[in-house]
Design goal:
- It is a single chain.
- The chain has 3 domains: 7-42, no CATH class; 56-136, no CATH class; 141-225, no CATH class.
- It has 9 helices and 7 strands, in the order ααβββββββααααααα.
- It is extended.
- It starts with 6 loop residues before the first helix and ends in a 7-residue tail after the last helix.
- It has a 4-stranded antiparallel beta sheet with strand order 1-4-5-6, with no helix packed on it. Strands 2-3-7 form a 3-stranded mixed beta sheet, with no helix packed on it.
- With 267 residues, it is of the alpha+beta class.
- It has helices spanning 7-24, 34-42, 143-148, 152-155, 164-173, 179-187, 195-207, 213-225, 251-260; strands at residues 56-61, 67-71, 86-90, 99-104, 108-113, 116-122, 135-136.
């Protein structure tokens, strides 16, 4: 069996292999393969009811750094007196120092407040109890912070794992005065637009050698409006010739005064 980077990849491979074997293996009791019998049986099956929303709910208070902690101790056990490390998960900055509800699922953590879902994180479970604490950031949660303090963008831990296109643009932007503020403004576009559209505009700006806020905004608006980007250049003449060339004739002003205001300036 090949190696896999994670359980999700292993499960996907196992599912595919099972489907392949079903198509190859005879059923034994009924005519045809297992896949053939399964296809006939599916027609008679009833639909599944909605999945039970099973979770454990805890009350948490968001820290001033927009984090909540979650101790994934198994049955409150400790090994050699060492408690399982506490995982920190980010929450939108607008809920700093406020109470929230943490819903614990087997594979994810959901943060809610006032009946609304604030955010969701994949649940990180460390098998070793001696590993250092990990903090799981979502950089979008800290946009309100860097909008007030753009300088935090340079060394802020939540922004160390930005998407590749944003990181490339950041390298260009931070070289010039005011680049922090412009980079924050570009990142904040994901609050009003689809993130993939913003990334596409950033990638186009980088490819065209114009990594500026103005150009990114222009490209984004054109993408959102469905306009063609990077089309063939227009074939225009080198010089446009007017049919009636303008003449510098100040006496025309005096003629107009005489006709409209009886020769006097309008007051």
């Amino acid at each position: 069996m090949p190696d896999f980077p994670d359980l999700a990849a292993l499960n996907a491979w196992l599912e595919q292999r099972c489907l392949e074997l079903w198509r190859e293996t005879a059923h034994g009791t009924l005519p045809g393969t297992i896949a053939d019998v399964w296809a006939e049986e599916q027609v008679a099956l009833m639909p599944l009811p909605p999945a039970f929303d099973g979770f454990i709910e805890l009350s948490k208070r968001v820290s001033p750094t927009c984090l909540i902690s979650f101790e994934h101790e198994e049955d409150q056990e400790t090994i050699r007196g060492i408690v399982s490390p506490t995982q920190g998960y980010s929450v939108p900055a607008s809920f700093a120092n406020r109470p929230v509800s943490l819903r614990i699922y087997p594979d994810r953590l959901v943060v809610a407040a006032k009946g609304n879902i604030l955010c969701e994180h994949l649940r990180i479970i460390e098998r070793s109890h001696q590993l250092p604490t990990r903090t799981i950031y979502d950089w979008r949660h800290y946009l309100a912070v860097v909008q007030r303090k753009p300088g935090a963008l340079r060394n802020g831990a939540p922004f160390l794992e930005l998407p590749h296109g944003f990181r490339q643009l950041q390298e260009h932007m931070l070289r010039k005065p005011g680049g922090d503020r412009e980079m924050v403004d570009i990142l904040a576009l994901v609050l009003q637009h689809d993130e993939q559209a913003v990334l596409a505009a950033v990638d186009l700006a980088l490819a065209e050698g114009l990594p500026t806020k103005t150009h990114v905004l222009n490209l984004l608006h054109r993408l959102v409006d469905g306009k063609v980007i990077g089309g063939p250049p227009l074939d225009t003449p080198q010089a446009l010739v007017l049919q009636r060339e303008p003449k510098a004739n100040v006496e025309r002003y005096d003629d107009l005064r005489a006709q409209v205001a009886g020769g006097h300036h309008a007051s």
